[in-house]
Structure prediction request, 147 residues.
Amino acid sequence: MNYMQYAKLTHHQNNYTVKKYLVSLSMLAILAACGGNEEKKETATAETTTTAAADDLSSNPDYVKGLELIGKSDCLTCHKVGDKLIGPSYKEVAEKYENTEENVTMLAGKIIKGGQGVWGSVPMTAHPTISEDDAKAMVKYIMLLKK
Ligand code: HEC
Prediction:
């Protein structure tokens, strides 16, 4: 019996409102914890698949550097590689723009200053502490996710 099932059983056997309330609270906490884990797993799977599919991207220095920088920042709160989250998926971004120096600079500027209106009305927060070089490295990684 796992913890969820145990928590559910406890919930049913309990007739006291206060206890029920406490059990519901702890279930919420468990649900929240489980949700978080699933999301992390999905991200990991998506990245593994991308790496395997795209001819050894993992040995490309631009890929490795950008991925590392993105992992250290807050990007993955709003972006996933293959699915839309709060922002567009990185694959969608890669499909939309040609991988030119001009676009890399333009998108790096959006990461630093924030952006809105290209993918919808939800804005991307600004990242004023990210250097232009690091922002460009992040965009170069994103561009490598093109099909
Ligand atoms: C608070 C949520 C959030 C965070 C954090 C965030 N983004 Fe975004 N991002 C968005 C949204 C929303 C958009 C779409 C903005 C628009 O429609 O113009 C976006 C758009 C983008 C785009 C495409 C811009 C364009 O004009 O097409 C890139 C590239 C990008 N984000 C990269 C990043 C990187 C790299 C990070 C981490 C440093 C990051 N984002 C962090 C929400 C976020």
In short: Residues 17-53 form the longest helix (37 residues). The helical segments are 3-13, 17-53, 61-72, 90-96, 101-113, 132-143.
